[in-house]
Amino acid sequence: MTTVFAPQRSEAWFEARRGIPTCSRFDKILTAAKGLPSAAQDTLIDELIAESICPPEQGLIRPHVTPEMEQGMRLEGEARCAYELEFAKWPVREVGFVLHASGMFGGSPDALVGDVGGVEIKCPNAATHVGYIRGSTLPNEYKCQVHGYMVVTGRDWWDFFSYARGFEPLCVHIVRDEFTAKLERELFTFCCEYNEARAKFNLPPIGQKEAA
Q1: How distant, in Å, are the alpha carbons of 30, 77, 79, 110 from that of 83?
Q2: Which CATH architecture has domain 2-199?
């Protein structure tokens, strides 16, 4: 894998991920509930080609940021410290963007943990956090993202960590399984179709980004 140690939302970070399928959008490639190819694949291809031509950070396509996303960005550092103090058994290291060895897809982990794991940090509103605690499992809406990080990094496990002030945090430990393998296979299938679509717009195929 290739790691970009640049702050998230910096110029270098945007450049590293431009036009690349990323973990936060893997749910548009594979469904979490049944592990089937998603009906949103064509829409994702359209979005990726559009951002390759007109980068969102230049204002031509405005990224949507919800109030909950803003709250998560504000509290992420605090939550990461809470995770490191209470749950991490190995050093926690921040990274900007990680590209899979194939160069075809990547992600922006909240942190890598030791040499074999990582953590996805969420700072939801109180009611959502309570729901996560009651479920005590990886929420379906983040299943593809979390398993995607294991695919991208080649690591064996990933923690899902939910944090809200005034409440006990939740840490769910996820290991590689059949869903991880199924997601990896579908990612390569999707990327082949994506490259065919990119050719129609005279865009270079993804997978050559590292050599560029």
Answers
A1: 29, 10, 6, 11
A2: Alpha-Beta Complex (3.90)
148 half-sphere exposure, CB direction, 13 A CA radius: 31
Domain ranges (residues) in the chain: 2-199
Neighbours of 155 (CB within 10 A): 20
The least confident of 32-46, 66-80, 81-95, 123-137 is 66-80
Vertex 179 angle, CA 178 and 181, to 5°: 65
Residues in the chain: 212
Residues 62, 67, 71, 76: is their CA dihedral positive or negative?
negative
Each residue of 23-41: pLDDT tens digit? 999 999 999 999 999 999 9
**Long-range contacts for 66-70 (Cβ within 8 Å, ≥24 apart)?**
68/124, 68/125, 68/128
Distance (Å, whole) CA 88 – CA 91: 7
CA–CA dist 129, 162 (Å, integer): 7
Q: What is the DSSP letter of 60?
A: S
Please state, in angstroms and as integers, the Cα–Cα distance from residue 173 to each residue in 72, 83, 131, following that order: 20, 12, 17
Mean pLDDT of 103-113: 95
Q: For 178-182, which contacts have Cβ atoms below 8 Å and span 24 or more sequence positions?
A: 179/35, 179/143, 179/147, 180/147, 180/150, 180/151, 182/30, 182/35
